[in-house]
Amino acid sequence: MWSTDGSSTTRSSGGCVYFAEDAIKHVRDEILTHVHDIEEVVSDARRSEACPYFVTRSAIQRTGQFLILPYNVVLHKPTRDSIGIDLNENCVVIFDEAHNVMDAIIDIHSAKMSYENMVTVLEATMTYHEKYAQRLRSKNLYYIRQLMTVLRHLIAFSAAEVGHPAMAAEAVSEFQFKAKIDNINVFKLLRFIDETKFAQKIQGFTDSRVETQGQLKAGRSDIYSVVAFLNCLTNSVGDGRVVCSRSKEEKERFFKYLMLNPSVVMKPIMDSVRAVVFAGGTLSPRTDIETRLLSGVAAERKTFFSCGHVVPEQNVLGTVVARGPSGVEFDFRFHSRNNNSLVRSKESGYSYLAFID
């Protein structure tokens, strides 16, 4: 928490010394004057005692004519919204190395929740409930108890049962029915978690009690693994499957949602922006991109362009070099990766020079 008095900014108790509004604005305006790389932003922010993360977020919201972003920011709507990126009809989105886009979508929108995640979050939530039950509103208590009910049912369902396979893939609706959580409105539960920032509250609460003997601390990975998995349960039935690993051994128990339909992630982006460009040197064959990624896009909106290599064929030489100029054998296989003899003998460099000459 910060308060500003005139031109000076002071920090109140419990705030971060680098979350200074004046300093963040100063560095933001400075980095918008010319192009900065990540290291330069961090260096400028450090000199001004400002947080480089919030400097960058502020800069994105003030400009954004040309932004270079990782896949996970563009392809994950909550992340885009959190940093103020609005994909509208004036935007052109370019995916470089686009053969990786489909795998990126599947990875970003899949989630795994282990037995340890569920138990840890349940115990932390129960402790929070016991401490604050008398202070919370009835609506908040209702959803906290719903979360505990969901976790208890999922923990019980993760145990191995006679006659049931140890590993199975289930549709979302079937999984919810078998786990006995089909009567829970997951959408409303997640809205409560988001609007009240309940995950952050559990994290802060357990951090403050970590020194208490016997207190089980819920780490960020535990809380957000549970929330991410619950979010996946709100997808359409046909968009993915839940892999259930039910075992007698607790460490082998987990639930994993696998996204199987990446087009549902891409279609809202395609519908909201002016154009989307998929660029890369290894997009052929493009059957997967057309059938799985762009299946919901009308044919008249798709345009394909391909050209030959930028280097003339006569300028390309393919050959095999087995030994260096002094007779040392080249061996670049995996088991020889820690062998520094080639580096020390400079055989590779001499070979390159021989070709140039």
What does this structure look like?
By secondary structure, the chain is an alpha+beta fold. The protein has 16 helices and 8 strands. It has helices at 21-31, 38-47, 52-62, 71-75, 77-82, 101-108, 115-132, 138-157, 172-178, 186-195, 198-208, 220-232, 263-272, 287-293, 341-345, 347-356, and strands spanning 2-5, 8-11, 92-95, 111-114, 167-170, 240-245, 254-259, 275-278. The strands form 3 sheets. It has a 4-stranded antiparallel β-sheet. A two-stranded antiparallel ribbon has the order 1-2. A hairpin with a 2-residue loop joins strand 1 (2-5) and strand 2. Helix 1 crosses helix 3 and helix 7 (115-132) packs antiparallel against helix 8 (138-157). The protein is globular, with a radius of gyration of 27 Å. The termini are far apart.
Structural class: alpha+beta
How many strands, which pairing sense, and closed or not: the largest β-sheet? Answer: 4 strands, antiparallel
Radius of gyration: 27 Å
**Overall geometry:** globular
pLDDT < 50 stretches:
1-13
Summarize, please:
The chain is built from 16 helices and eight strands.
